[in-house]
Design brief:
Blueprint (H helix, E strand, L loop, with lengths): L2 H19 L2 H10 L2 H27 L3 H24 L10 H12 L4 H28 L3 H31 L1
Helix pairs in contact: 1-4, 1-7, 3-4, 3-5, 3-6, 4-7, 5-6, 6-7
Length: about 180
């Protein structure tokens, strides 16, 4: 079985367990019990994750390379899964607008034609985004107190690190094709 699928299933099960095991009132009590660190972590993760999802959707439409499209599919699946987990932990979560540099990267990809130049720009933007996501997770792990959020963050961090490895391989492959 695919390791990513196992990790995602574990994270979903871990995050969904309190929702299925408790009444709505108890789930709401859990949400209100989340500290500032957890809320900030969820907001930042959701904001950058939503931007990454938008880029992945563009790549699924415009990408030239098979491996880039494959990565875009992995990214789309990851972001949908993580967004679902975050939403079960905090139903009021609403991502904010991405930072200006991230919004510019999305606009640039949106305005590009497909092809190899699009693929290079997508991979570069995804590396930047995943480094931001990794930083958000590591910052949270230094101060996070909610054990469920800490555990989910550790799983997400593993997925981010895997994606950074895949992106590095894609970038190397693109550079060798020049």
């Amino acid at each position: 079985m695919d390791r990513r699928a196992i990790l995602a299933a574990g994270a979903i099960a871990m995050a969904a367990t309190p929702v299925f095991a408790q009444s709505d009132n108890r789930a709401n009590a859990r949400t209100s019990a989340l500290g500032d660190a957890e809320k900030t972590h969820a907001e930042k993760t959701a904001t950058i994750g939503t931007a990454s999802l938008a880029m992945a959707n563009l790549a699924l439409e415009k990408s030239h390379g098979e491996k880039v499209r494959e990565f875009a599919k992995f990214e789309k699946d990851e972001q949908i899964t993580v967004a679902g987990i975050l939403k079960t932990m905090d139903p009021s979560l609403s991502p904010s607008n991405p930072p200006q540099d991230v919004a510019k990267a999305i606009d640039k990809l949106r305005n590009m034609q497909g092809g190899e130049s699009f693929d290079r720009e997508f991979v570069s933007a995804q590396i930047d985004g995943h480094e931001m996501l990794r930083s958000i997770q590591l910052d949270y792990l230094k101060e996070g107190k909610d054990q469920g959020t800490v555990n989910a963050t550790k799983l997400v961090l593993g997925m981010i690190n895997e994606h950074l490895t895949l992106l590095s391989d894609l970038k190397s492959s693109q550079e060798s094709d020049l």
